[in-house]
Amino acid sequence: VEQTNLAARAAAATVIVGKAWTSTSRSGTVLIHYGSGTGCYGVSFGFPTIASTWNNNVRSAEGLNNCWSTQYDGTSYTGALLNCTPYCATLGSFAAKTSSIVYRPTGTWG
Fold first, then answer.
1. What does pTM read for this prediction?
2. 3-state secondary structure of 14
3. What's the average pLDDT block by block, 10 residues per block, for the chain (110 residues)?
4. In sequence order, what are the residues at sequence separation of 6 or more whose Cβ sits closer than 8 angstroms to the Cβ of residue 89?
């Protein structure tokens, strides 16, 4: 019984902080990023690298649960950046350049 309760608490503590898609307007394949707690309420969640199939392949992005996302064209949050506040249907000239992502509290710029 104790293990079941721990699993339930662990599942409740995981929240989606953002999504990124291979096509514009929430279409194509989706990459889901998870954080802990209730989202970006006073905390940020960083992903210094993304899977090789996603690197330079993101074309729309969205922060969820009080998160804005910042897309970086370099790994470890380097290079040019684009903020999605909270949703970017397209990334414009930044399309297919994302190599790392940070999800920050709403109102916080990268």
1. 0.87
2. strand
3. 43 84 97 95 96 95 98 98 98 97 96
4. 24, 25, 26, 60
